Structure formats: structure tokens, C-alpha cells
Amino acid sequence: MKRIKxxxxxxVMTAASLPSFAQKWGNTPEDSVSCVxxxxxxxxxxxxxxxxxxxxxxxxCLKTCPAxxxxxxxxxxxxxxxxxxxxxNAEERDAIVKELMDMYDLRIKxxxxxxxxxxxxxxxxxxxxGVKAVKEYYPIYAEAMRLGGSEVEPVHINxxxxxxxxxxxxxxADTTLIIDNYDVASEALEAILAKTQDSAQKATIYGVIAxxxxxxxxxxxxxxxxxxxxxxxxxxxxDVNLLKKITTILRxxxxxxxxxFFAATEKLHSLEPNATTAYLMGQMCYQKDKFNDAVRYLNxxxxxAETDKDRYNMHILIGMxxxxxxxxxxxxxxxxxxxDIEPNKGEPLRLIAQLYAKGARAISxxxxxxxxxxxxxxxxxxxxxVDSSPENVEAAQKLxxxxxxxxxxxxxxxxLDLIDGHSYTVPGWIGVSTTVRTRK
Length: 440
Prior knowledge:
Strands 1-2 form a two-stranded antiparallel sheet. With 440 residues, it is mostly helical. The chain is elongated and about 115 Å long. Helix 13 (240-252) packs across helix 14 (259-271), helix 14 (259-271) runs antiparallel to helix 15 (275-287) and helix 18 runs antiparallel to helix 19. Among the domains are: 1-112, no CATH class; 343-440, no CATH class. The chain has helices spanning 2-15, 21-25, 29-47, 51-64, 71-85, 90-111, 114-129, 134-148, 154-169, 176-194, 199-216, 222-235, 240-252, 259-271, 275-287, 291-304, 308-324, 328-341, 347-358, 372-386, 390-404, 410-414, and strands at residues 423-425, 433-435.
């Protein structure tokens, strides 16, 4: 031991001139000697898994040089847990848990990472004091998420939500807390997922998301969500943050057909109009057969749409609105715009084919509008040519089979000098060039 102290003193004298020395090894020469000596002692004991023997020199390091090394805190968890497991005395165990909590606070002071370290603090308290101590560890989890949910490890986010459920089901809060914290946990996991590249890590995150979804499910019926949030909405209809929470949760839980979702989205759009809220309003108006209102909202959403995927879907929905109001030219224009955005997708062309078939009776060709089916089949074939996916090919072929059966009879076409294989322009709003085809 004397030799160790001599070596420690030599190290102190050598390094004392370094600017960071005092912070790392102690504020006085005596502290520095103590720090170097006890660092050697606790590390040696720790290396040999003599965790109980490591405690005293480790504790002295924490006192004299708390900024020495982050490993001081990482190893401290093992050392203190070993002491906890070595005794059955309740008072001693409570004192050790407090010491561990204080150590975590000291780690945050010198090394930051407040959100994740606070979550570990909650996790260790839960492990040591048991799940029944939820009134003690739940607030620590909640504080970790408040400090920065996306900085907390997914496993601890799962523990946070599990603690929330236990906190509520043991009578400490109402179900609203579970719903609110589901939103907190989901938002944090989505943020982590967005910045994660490693496939294995992504798989882990998806696993946590699935676990939380499963745990949340019993508390997430649309009826219960609506009951809880209707009261909040009625009390604070202009609270933008509340409106965002309501619309987000109801959308995630597939409760978009509820009156509350419509009212909250409409209110949110009036307060903070953007492409997302306009798109949602367009979708809901379409579902309520308010097609003109839907088109208005969707055109508004298109002005600020950020992705081709969104623009594509908006044009498709606009086309469907026009389809339902028999505005055939408007529907075709919308579907064509969608096709221009996604030229390798067959869906817009199939929709135009269906449009031609629906609007057949609106043209005057002397054949009851049956020439429209030539254009419809042409468009369905185009859909097959641009998109070879099995789903598209199957859907397009069904259209071709159905519409071909509606071609005019050869005898009827002959009366109008229409001969198979000759070119023909379909009249009226369709106005496209095609080829005569008849059935016997």
C-alpha cells in the first residue's frame, strides 16, 4: 500500500501542471493522491469480481474525484447492486437504493445524458424495490421522458409505458394518463426509428412498438378514447396541442370515422391550416359523401404537399370525388395527374378505364354508348403494360374481360359503317382515338 501511495504521489506531481488535472483527479494534492490510490484499488477488486471489496475505495473516488471517469458510475451500479443483494436488512437496502439514486444524479451533473440516465435510475429502482414501488419509480420514468423521450433507450421507453399502466391500474391516476403516455412513448419511438439505420436495431424498435401497442389495446377502444377526449375537447376547443394529440391518437387507433375526430381536425385546420389537416379534412368529407367540400380541401392540401406519394393520393381522391358526382372530365384530369406522378402504376389508368365505362351512356354514338368500352379496354391494357405487378395485372384483366363483353354487336356496328380494325374516335367527353371491335 505504501508503494502504491508513493506511485500515486509521483503521478500527482507529474500531472499537476495539466489544466484538467484538478477536475479529473481532485481539487487538492491530498484528494488527488486519494483518487489515484483508490482508483487503482477499486478497479483491481472490480476486475476480480470482488465487488464488495471494491465498494470502499470506489466510494472514496466518488467523493474526491467525481469527474474522474464515466466508468466510475457504470461500475458503481454493479458495486451497489452487489451490496444490495448481500443484505436482507430493509433499512440497509433502502439506504443502498438511495445511494444508487444519488450516484445517478452525480453522473448527470458531470456527464450529462440526463434523459437516458434518469430512465436507468427509474429502471434500477423498479428492479431493486419491486414493481409494487410504482409510486416511487413511475415519476422518475416520467421525468426521463420529459427530459427527452427520443434520447431514452427503447427498452426503457417500454418500461416507462408498463409503469404507466401499473400506476393507473393500482389507483394512482385515471385512464387518461395511459392514453397520454401512449402518445408520448409512440412519438419518442418514431423519432428514434427515423434516425436509425441499422436493421437489427430497427427490428428491436419495431418489437417495442408492438409490445406497447398490445399493452395499450385494452384501454384503446374508440368509444373510450372518444369519451375521454370529448370532455377535454369541449373544455378547451382552441388548445392546439390538445387538438394535435386527439387527432394523432384517434388516427393511430383507426377511430377516424368518429364525430370527435372530424370536429377536432376541422378545428385544428381552422387554427393551424396545413397540408396534413387539409388532406385529413378531404378524406373525411369524402367518407361523408361531401364530395365538393372534399375537393376544396384536397386542392388546398396539394398546394403544400411535400411528397409525390401524398400528391399522388390526393389526385386519386379528387378523381374519386368527381367520379361520384359524374364530373367525368374532372375525374379523368385528376387520374391523369396521378399517372404523371407515378407513371409505373396501373391504378390511375384502371380508374380511367372504369370512368369510361361508367360514362358510356353520356355519349351519343348510335350504339348506346358502347364504343366507350373500346376506350375502356385500351386504357386497361395500358395499365397492364406499365405495371406488371400481379395485383394490377389481375385487376386490369378483369376489366378487359368485363368491358369486352359490352362491345357492340357486329351487325349493329355494320349499320353505321364501322368495320373491325378500322380507327374510330369515341365522341363526346371521351374523345379518344381507338379501334373498332365487335362481338358476333
